[in-house]
Amino acid sequence: MKKNVGTIVGINGNMLTVRFTGSITQNEVGFALIGDERLKSEVIRIQNDRAFLQVFESTKGLRVGDSVEFTGELLSVALGPGLLGQIYDGLQNPLPQLAEEHGFFLPRGVVLEALSRETRWHFTPAVKKGDTVIKAMPLGHVPETQFSHRIMVPFYLEGEYTVLSVADEGDYTIEDEIAVLQNEKGGKISVSMTFEWPVKLPIDAYREKILPTEPLTTKSRIIDTFFPVALGGTYCIPGPFGAGKTVLQQITSRNAEVDIVIIAACGERAGEIVETMREFPELIDPRTGKSLMERTIIIANTSSMPVAAREASVYTATTLGEYYRQMGLNVLLLADSTSRWAQAMRELSGRLEEIPGEEAFPAYLESRIAEFYERAGLVELHSGDRGSLTIGGTVSPAGGNFEEPVTQSTLKVVGAFHGLSRERSNARRFPAIDPLESWSKYESFIDSAAISRARKFLRTGAEVHQMMMVVGEEGTSIEDFVVYLKSEFLDSVYLQQNAFNDVDAATSPERQKYVFDLIATVLGTSLGFAGKDEARKFFTDLRQQFLDWNVLEFESDAFAAAEKKIRAMIEGIADDEENLQ
Amino acid sequence: MKKIYNKILSIAGNVITVKAEDVAYEELAEITTRRGRSLAQVIKIEDDIVSLQVFAGSRGIATNDEVRFLGHPMQVSFSDTMLGRIFNGSGVPRDGGPSIADEVIPIAGPSVNPAKRIIPKRMIRTNIPMIDVFNSLVASQKLPIFSVSGEPYNELLARIAMQAEVDMIILGGIGLKFDQYMYFKNVLEDGGALSRSIFFIHTASEPIVEGLMVPDLALAVAEKFAMAGREVLVLLTDMTNFSDALKEIAITMEQVPSNRGYPGDLYSQLASRYEKAVDFEGAGAITVLAVTTMPGDDVTHPVPDNTGYITEGQFYLRNGRIEPFGSLSRLKQQVNSDTREDHRAIMDGMIQLYAQYQESEEKRAMGFRMSGWDNKLLKYGKLFEGQMMDLSVNIPLEEALDRGWEILAECFEPGETGLRSELVKAFWPAERQETTEGKPAPKTEQGEAAPSEKEGGRKGDAGEKKKEKKTKKKK
Fold first, then answer.
1. Of the residues B56, B73, B90, which one is the last residue of a structural domain?
2. In a domain, B455, yes or no
3. Which of B446, B414, B447 is closest to B428 using CA atoms?
4. B270 domain-assigned
5. Rounded Cα gap, residues B257 and B234, in angstroms
6. A498 touches chain B (CB under 8 A)
7. CATH of the domain at B215
8. How would residue B475 be classed by pLDDT, with cut points 50, 70 and 90?
9. Are residues B247 and B301 in the same domain?
């Protein structure tokens, strides 16, 4: 077949204008040829005989008249065993291998295989000759780290197929043929363990989408108790710089009770993802006893890497997440930061000279964000089991002001909002999620009535605090003052969590229920104090006891002993109350 | 042989267009005008219409002036003989010395593979206590100095350049006032540091476009030296001028502005420069300190705002001092555990007390009655500001820590500082230790002080954690 080749007629930043003759497809991949470098690009607009391509690399040195080779394929990623533990750039180039071959810098125009062609996987068939299969049905499985990786009928095969042959149990590489399928018309299709899927199309090879209800445990108390996330749900974390977005994502990627975590470092500092890359292989996942890296995929397209690849990286990560969801696993995708992704769209839109929307973001910003979050979900597969993809994205609003297009468009489509505040992070109250502004539409594992009572304390406590700033402590009634102290107590012993302490950093749901119960008791007990100093002293001591309690191992002897002391303190003050009357 | 064109189609702002063929994107051209020669760079090609930004500005360019394409993108020479030399924003010597044409290297090269980066762990000492003690600078860090016009930010940069423990310094000046340029030159010359420095200077009197190249030139040279094993400190002043130059070109090119006229890719543009800061495993490192002046002292202005999202912390320079609350070095935790055992405790303890001092100071200013504890804090605050925060204080880290203990001992009893008792035993100044030995930690008069002490004590253990009292920021 003759190659479809076009000619460059214009260059503006990372956008090329290419004259073509044959037929081309929207979003197909082309390679701009410069010497022996092949610069990957994507068609983003077609006008008469001209195609506009965004180049995923630097366009330095390209000339008008240079050729562009069209591939006819949409921008795709390779799916198959061997994805877990990998570190990719936004276009699924494995970064460690690139470093091995090219040293410190990222070379231009180099494309490496995303999956190893040499590794042999132990395949066990799940179908036999003559079986009828449809797309995404497992043909067999191979062990990949602690999971059973399903080898599925490629998702692009529509209709019913008959299995003509399937490989025997044994070791195969991803390229070896493991099955031959026949379609209704008699055409034969050879299937291996790997196939490609275009990143911008959602994988929909499941029976139906289900409403997410089961909570996803992050082990952050403020999230799990007050602003929970559901398996298959979506949430966003907007916050100004320095408020701890990335740290919160890092903690979540460590502690979340899911099968697989995909971290998309999208246009943020390289240093941050380096910490994850270097530390995860050493950290042990308490649930499996294996290294955390074995359940993690990192997509690193940091701020100085090409902008167009940044736009693609979010889709790459989502596609990998959807793929593992098809195996009945719970996947969590953490995108940091979606604002950088939106900015990449803005840059592109500007080069296309589209009419800008608010703050020069393109008019389709909102629908793109909605499409992205809608790819999350809890699904029932054809096999009857369920898998989920949960998406959590950080947002970096300009100036820390949430009234900007990316934050607002995101808030419309997500199920939970964890807004970080500068005040809380300045006061070193971490995680700096603002308990008054944040919300969640999902159910927590703690009784909702108890939570709304606790939130009421936070709200009135904040009001009292505001008032105290004006009239001073003297002008505040003792009742109001106690409400304020109670809200501060709840804040410091429960909402705040010490990320540096191994026990306090991750609180199990059981422990959250247990501790919250006791806190609810404290909040619910009416306390009579002789004066404000006495009240303050009581809460200072109680807080100290609680903080010490928080770092003790759950259900240990020390834990029980400390709890006894706390309960005695609370009863002590209740007695006082009676004495006073 | 490269073709010469002498028909300029349009001149708008600092951008000209010519009809030319076989021109590469980002290629350089030389324009000869009656005012002399200037470099220009290709920024857009549409069919055979090529747009170029002219570094020397478009003033005085005639439509029949000669445009000669050079066949290569912007380059800079790289050699050891560059040390002690001063260049302009096009990489041409401005010190009257011979031009250097050893090895030429392209600028704005590819970014470093994240997989090759390492977790930074080497501290750079500057002998400025507000940096060394409270927000340590780490090799490979990128840190801006947020400031407003009129603050001594260039003096601070010059001092860091003189004192920082690095092999060489590369100074990139963008829109630098002439006297500031001379100041840098004289200070480094007098201090004997000029011989390990390279200057790329664009002054405010020169066309703004020429300043656009300065960060790339400085960083490309720095990268080469770092690869060769040098510890390089790159100082850039002022990145707001750089951003303004970007804005100017973007508007001329009729790009849609995103925020206050700045182009939508401001973040990516800044990031691609700042992310050049790196520690090469087995070779040298690049550390970047850049001044960002905040127009109207507004940290939400697009330039400081985007910068804050890119850099690893920031130093706030206000009233001639590095402000302890807004300032942050995100990498300090990587290094301040291996300096001296009291480093973290002094860092946390002194800042918490300083925060309390500010509350007392506020109360005092509003005319409230001062308690004994307040008076202690007021005394402490004055000492802290005078002997630690003042930019003229010039002592090594260890001496600064000792001075910290001195200040604490002068104002407080050991129990009031919230510092761990084993540290107090080891470091509390000896001549004062006798007087406090045997005495129980005194009770403070004010109810409010008691909880704060307790906090401090806990905090010493937990490292940098949870501060209950809201740290009041200066208005």
1. B73
2. no
3. B414
4. yes
5. 30
6. yes
7. 3.40.50.12240
8. very low
9. yes
Mean pLDDT, residues B226-254 taken together: 93
A545 contacts chain B (CB < 8 A): no
Using CA coordinates, name the residue in chain A closest to B107: A60
Residue ranges, chain A, pLDDT below 70? 1-2, 574-581
**pLDDT, averaged across chain B:** 86
Residues of chain B positioned with their CB less than 8 A from the CB of A307: 265, 268
Which 125-184 residues of chain A touch chain B by CB within 8 A?
Answer: none
Q: Which residues of A touch B15 (CB under 8 A)?
A: none
d(CA B9, nearest CA chain A) in Å: 17
Are B225 and B373 part of one and the same domain?
no
Tell me, yes or no, whether B101 and B208 share the same domain.
Answer: yes
pLDDT tens, B2-54?
A: 678 989 999 998 899 999 999 999 999 999 988 888 899 999 999 999 999 99
Q: Is A296 on the interface with B (CB under 8 A)?
A: no
Q: How far apart are CA A220 and CA A224, in angstroms?
A: 6
Which of B313, B334, B355 terminates a domain? The answer is B334
Nearest to A360 among B112, B257, B280 (CB): B257
Shared domain for B21 and B146, answered yes or no, is no
CB B383 within 8 A of CB B410: yes
What was the ipTM of the complex prediction?
0.87
- A17 interface with B at CB cutoff 8 Å: yes
Q: What are residue A325's phi and psi, to 5 degrees?
A: -60, -35
User: Do both B109 and B218 map to the same domain?
Assistant: yes
- The parent domain of residue B171 ranges over 76-334
Among A37, A60, A358, most B C-beta atoms within 10 A, so best to mutate, is: A60
Residue B266: predicted pLDDT: 92
Rg (CA), chain B: 26
What average pLDDT does this structure show over B180-207? 92
Number of domains in chain B: 3
A566 — phi, psi (to 5°)? -65, -45
Are B136 and B67 in the same domain? Answer: no
Q: Establish how many alpha carbons lie within 13 A of residue B162's alpha carbon, considering only the half-sphere containing its beta carbon.
A: 19
